[in-house]
Design brief:
- The protein is α+β, with helices and mostly antiparallel strands.
- The chain contains two helices and five strands, in the order E-H-H-E-E-E-E.
- Strands 1-5-4-3-2 form a five-stranded mixed beta sheet.
- A hairpin with a 2-residue loop joins strand 4 and strand 5.
- The longest helix has 16 residues.
């Protein structure tokens, strides 16, 4: 599965401290390669087709685009948990 970051997600990632940012990127890539490996940290968001991945105090909001054979994980937002669900 490929990962595509929205401009908004890239901007939000730039504001996150370096070590945390690298951990988030690693977890997103890990989920894209093997979704069952992080199954307990991923939940569907009610009322939307989006899902969230928990990485420490941060939440990565994303959805999966099905384009025939190619699947793309589109990262929409990266926010601290106190701001993620506003």
């Amino acid at each position: 599965m490929r990962v595509r970051w929205t401009k908004r997600a890239v901007k939000e990632m730039a504001a996150i401290p370096g070590p945390v940012r690298h951990r988030i990127i690693a977890k997103v890539e890990q989920y894209a390669e093997a979704p069952p490996s992080l199954g307990n940290n991923v939940k569907s968001l009610i009322g939307t087709d989006c899902m969230r991945l928990r990485v420490g105090d941060y939440r990565i909001i994303f959805h999966i685009e099905d384009g025939g054979v190619v699947e793309v994980m589109v990262v929409l937002n990266v926010k601290h948990r106190r701001e993620a669900y506003d």
